[in-house]
Design goal:
The complex is a heterodimer. Chain A is α+β, with helices and mostly antiparallel strands. Helix content of chain A is 33%, strand content 16%. Chain A folds into two domains: 77 residues, Beta-grasp domain (Ubiquitin-like (UB roll)); 74 residues, Orthogonal Bundle (DNA polymerase, domain 1), CATH 1.10.150. Helix content of chain B is 25%, strand content 25%. The longest helix of chain B has 26 residues. In chain B, α5 crosses α6 and α8 runs parallel beside α9. Chain B is an alpha+beta fold. Chain B is globular. Classes of the chains: A alpha+beta, B alpha+beta. At the A-B interface, α1, α2, α3, α4 and α5 of A face α1, α3 and α15 of B.
């Protein structure tokens, strides 16, 4: 909105380990808008605009947040991680969570999927021992209208199992 | 029972397997392009100005201040619509923009294109509209005889169904009145589309929709362009559930693109989405059931009044469904049913999963429980006793010629193990009210309820909703056979793209199957609704694949060999093979003046048993378990079928205890996900599903559509369980906390 009287700003965001320059943006833009419309990262989705549905879930310095409720200019100096940054390696191999979503049929229309992948990834990193109720609680801020959550819960349980199996195979404590 | 032709035993991931979705990987990585993700060079943002009033006359619109804003490229109103000023799915009665009269809150008045979405919003706010506000008509009963709100009148349709002996009487009679609130489809991906003006004076529209061709026809008519100048391509669809059957922003965004000569994108906010699409019809229903003392149904009488809101949408078909299925999946020899759907100044209503049957099922299943109580019979026993079976006549006079495993679905749901009784050691999150931690274990009562429903598959009443598909077979770049399917069927999440691949793999024995872009360059596939795409477009893909195989057989015959004896790549050395075929379902009849006729193609059945925990003092409910038996014909992708069942039950649960668009004097009070609540992972119970597989004669692969039945009888089963736990009547959904806590004293 640089060609209006509204004040515009320039800043730099660090997203998925890369610096992105944002030039001449309206100060009121949300992190979700800037990710999607200015940085070419549309994986975070826009479903409710008010932090109710979790479709825009990203992490900000490791904390799961709704990108629609964060001012982009407030994310300066923080590490932003989006669904585009959760793959298992630099070649874009699917993460355990992404693979489990595919293997269990947890994807239908897919609009909620990136947000759920972020929430499940966050859970897996914090609590790979989560039981079913803990998984339900962890994703209760992510709305899905297609699946009734049954296969999503299965996917996250499978991802937790695989993570624990991998950890035990390495002889580490979970 | 005859079985539809079984497919060849194909390679892996053919029919019957839980094959992976072809769009699964990009949907998990975020790379999948939904319609809201599209961008184009020089793109503008479109925004709609909507009426804040439910009923008003427009005296004047002044857009000069908006047009004067830097960065605003265009403002369009009714005066700028070059073609037909109205559109509609079945009856074109809805203005592209209100010209002189506003008939519902949220009706579009103008649209703006600007360089930034926030600027577009501010520009709409700068448009001055001088309204003369008038009193809205919001009571559907009153609307029947009120002065017309529209030149086409207030009664969209009245069906007076009369079947058998209309004077028949039963020894036992039960009566009841029931209401269903307005439910929203609440798909996650809001309405969005990108229109790009073309050099030929036409427009290319990339859009999330359920039916490209019917959108194309409406958009072309309103733009005053020939249909071939309006080309629609399906962009990624974030769920549908009926809300994308009607045109929303399609005409507006194309008008702005043609006016500005630049690409224009429109993307509704969640709030605008609540105003931008139709909802499930609210219903008021009165019922009288007659039965013998032994428990045989004698007659059902009912009066159904559905509120269609301001414009027709698919109301005339919705009321046909509500009326035809008003007695439930039971043998009912006599029926007197009056179904009405009327125009009011409430939000327009139309298609939502279950399409008219959801409303009727809530009422007829409450009646069956009431009848069981009056007879001193077990409610499941009463349903089994009256269950429809093949060869039975419906209340429309139509005889069921296909499968009707009603007793099987009931028995399957009833046979599942009940969940463990609540225990003191349970996590308090599992109490009604969950994270609120307000309920106490000692106050909680458990209840169990049961319900059965059925619905038509495909469009009814003489409508030929055919589907066209093309299958091409050639040698791919890697030297292996490669098939490509083209079909305009809208993938909205249900998994048609997976199924199309499975069909071709099984029919042609080819592993690599690509899917072409769904667009209007090929024939119509009909709508992704009415549980019809597996049957209709699956059938079209099957026909096209078999036509390809017939060509291969000819080529093999020229080599004096059978087709299976020659490698496919050798047969394809003569060149690629491409065949296009159109699939029609068996013809149906219109309903006559007594609501009689063989109006439907096929039927699918499901039963649900719900277990709930209720805190009667706080009015809080937790659904503990849903057991279901569902008639699927044949499960072509069992994992997808289970996904449809669980997802459909979630929407049924929402209607039972959570979801309602609250409309007050025509004004929506809760257009947000903060105030319109849909089930979360903590609200959804464990689902125990049993698939009943009886191949349906005449159906491709014997498969029935599976999307809608889970949404139909899950709602009444949950409410029956709450009645069981509380002893309350509960005649209205959604059941609100005050309905339980105040025991009906408030409502």
């Amino acid at each position: 909105m640089s060609d209006t009287a509204t004040p515009s700003v320039a800043y730099t965001l660090v997203v998925n380990g890369r610096e992105h320059a944002v030039a001449s943006a309206w100060l009121g833009e949300s992190l979700l808008y800037v990710l999607r419309e200015r940085l070419g990262l549309p994986g975070s989705k826009n479903a409710c605009d008010q932090g109710e549905c979790g479709s825009c879930s990203v992490t900000l310095d490791g904390v799961l947040v709704c990108a629609c409720c964060v001012l982009a200019a407030d994310a300066v100096g923080s590490e932003v991680r989006t669904v585009e940054g959760v793959s298992a390696d630099a070649d874009g191999a699917l993460s355990e969570v992404q693979q489990a979503f595919l293997d269990t049929g947890a994807v239908q229309c897919g609009f909620c999927t990136p947000g759920l992948v972020m929430a499940a990834t966050d859970l897996l990193e914090r609590r790979p021992d989560a039981d079913e109720l803990a998984i339900r609680e962890a994703i209760s801020g992510n709305l899905c209208r297609c699946t009734g959550y049954g296969r999503i819960l299965e996917a996250i349980a499978v991802a937790c199992d695989r993570r624990r199996g991998r950890t035990e195979a390495r002889g580490e404590r979970t | 029972m005859t079985t539809a032709t079984p497919p060849r035993t194909g390679p892996r991931d053919g029919l019957g397997s839980s094959a992976d979705r072809p769009d699964g990987v990009p949907k998990t990585t975020g790379a999948f392009a939904f319609s809201s993700d599209l961008v184009a060079d020089g793109m503008l943002w479109g925004r709609t100005l909507r009426s804040p009033h439910a009923s008003a006359r427009i005296r004047r619109i002044d857009a000069s201040a908006a047009l004067a804003m830097d960065g605003v490229a265009a403002v369009v109103t009714a005066a700028d619509v070059p073609g037909r000023p109205v559109y509609g799915l079945e009856h074109a009665d809805q203005p592209v923009f209100a010209a002189d009269v506003v008939r519902y809150q949220g009706e579009p008045i103008a649209a703006v294109a600007a360089v930034h979405p926030e600027l577009a919003l501010r520009a709409t706010q700068a448009i001055v509209v001088d309204y003369e506000v008038t009193d809205p008509v919001t009571d559907p009963e009153a609307a029947i005889s009120a002065p017309p709100l529209h030149p086409d009148g207030n009664v969209f349709r009245h069906i007076a169904l009369r079947h058998g002996d209309v004077d028949a009487r039963g020894e036992v009679v039960v009566e009841g009145g029931y209401q269903v609130g307005m439910q929203d489809q609440a798909f996650l991906g809001p309405e969005s589309g990108l229109a790009i003006p073309a050099a030929d004076g036409g427009v290319d529209l990339f859009i999330s929709t359920q039916w490209l061709h019917v959108d194309r026809d409406q958009v072309a008519a309103c733009l005053g362009l020939p249909p071939d100048k309006v080309r629609l391509s399906l962009a990624g669809v974030g769920g549908a559930f009926g809300a994308r059957e009607d045109v929303s922003l399609q005409v507006h965004v194309c008008l702005l693109a043609l006016r500005t000569g630049r690409p224009v994108k429109m993307l509704y906010s969640r709030e605008e989405s609540f105003f931008g699409h139709v909802h499930r019809h609210p219903a008021r229903m009165t019922y009288r059931h007659h039965a013998t003392r032994a428990g045989d149904l004698v007659k059902v009488e009912a009066r159904l009044v559905l509120d269609g809101g301001a414009y027709a949408s698919s109301s005339t078909a919705v009321i046909a469904n509500a009326t035809c299925f008003s007695a439930g999946p039971y043998h009912v020899p006599n029926a007197v049913i009056d179904g009405w759907v009327v125009r009011t100044n409430n939000p327009p209503c139309g298609a939502m999963r279950g399409f008219g049957v959801v409303q009727a099922c809530f009422a007829h299943e409450a009646q069956m429980d009431k009848l069981a109580a009056a007879l001193g019979m077990d409610p499941v026993e009463l349903r089994l006793r009256n269950a429809l079976e093949p060869g039975d006549e419906l209340i429309t006079g139509q005889v069921i010629t296909g499968t009707a495993p009603v007793r099987e679905v009931i028995a399957a749901a009833a046979a599942r193990d009940l969940p463990a009784e609540p225990a003191a050691a349970d996590d308090p999150l599992l109490l009604p009210g969950g994270a609120g931690l307000t309920a106490q274990r000692r106050d909680v009562r458990r209840g169990v309820g049961f319900a059965v429903g059925f619905k038509n598959l495909m469009y009814s009443e003489g409508f030929d909703d055919s589907s066209t598909a093309a299958v091409r077979l050639e040698v791919g770049a890697d030297g292996a056979p490669l098939a490509t399917v083209r079909c305009a069927a809208a993938e909205v999440g249900q998994g048609f793209v997976t199924l199309a691949q499975q069909i071709v793999r099984s029919e042609l024995g080819v592993e690599h199957v690509l899917l072409g872009q769904a667009d209007t360059s090929i024939g119509s596939a009909g709508s992704t609704s009415a549980s019809r795409q597996t049957w209709m477009s699956g059938g079209a893909v099957q026909l096209a694949a078999r036509a390809v195989r017939a060509v291969l057989e000819e080529r093999a015959a020229r080599r004096d060999a059978s087709v299976d004896a020659v490698a496919l790549v050798d047969l394809l050395a003569d060149g690629p093979v491409e065949e296009v075929r159109t699939h029609h379902h068996a013809p149906t009849d219109r309903l006559d003046e007594r609501g009689q006729g063989s109006a439907h193609v096929s039927f699918a059945f499901a039963a649900h048993r719900a277990v709930v925990d209720v805190d009667p003092e706080l009015g809080l409910v937790r659904v503990v378990q849903i057991a279901t038996g569902q008639d699927v014909g044949r499960a072509l992708n069992p994992r997808s079928v289970v996904g449809q069942i669980e997802g459909g039950i979630a929407q049924g649960l929402g209607l039972a205890v959570m979801e309602e668009i609250v409309v007050d004097d025509g004004v929506i009070r809760n257009p947000s996900f903060t105030d319109y609540l849909i089930p979360t992972a903590l609200d959804m119970p464990v689902v125990a599903a049993t698939l009943i597989e009886q191949p349906e004669p005449g159906a491709p692969f014997g498969a029935k559509g599976v999307g809608e039945p889970p949404t139909i009888s899950s709602t009444p089963a949950i409410v029956a369980a709450i009645r069981d736990a509380t002893g309350l009547d509960l005649t209205r959904v959604p059941v609100r906390p005050e309905d339980i806590a105040l025991g009906g004293r408030l409502t």
